[in-house]
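Sequence only, no structure available. Ideas?
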Amino acid sequence: IDTADGGAISIDAIGASSNFSLASTSNGDDLTIAVTGTYDSSLVLSSTGTGVDAIKVIASNAAGGIDMDAGTGGIDIDSTGTINIATSKNGASALVLTSSAGGVDITATGAEAGEDINITATGSSINLTSTEAQENAIKVIASNAAGGIDMDAGTGGIAIDTADGGAISIDAIG
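Reply:
I predicted one. Tokens follow.
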């Protein structure tokens, strides 16, 4: 099918499951679905399905992966339901969030009491590390006037260490 002179193509099926597939017989047998041309155009995958799998992207081979790349417009995931990112990989770096040129923000806006940001390590530790050479390289802030900071520890106690000559300051105001 060639529409070099313009015109639309529509392939429609009604009332039956359908597929468009390529039976690969060697490496490099790729199936490409693309929108070309540098215009404000989009590739739209749309479903009005009501199941939790209304749109599925599957790499079913154990060695397969999914690679998503985007330009300066970024990637936006928006949902009225829960967004769950899960991995069953066993290892120290099972889930990695990396920003190679900029910061990382985790923000809960419009949250109410009890709708907290929880970081839980079950059976392991939580390490906060900063390599910035600033006196406030790691900050813990409760910005509400009535807010506080609560630290609880087991029998291992709380250790506060500073480098040679580093000061420890505990100030109570008011």
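The radius of gyration is 26 Å.
Hope that gets you unstuck.
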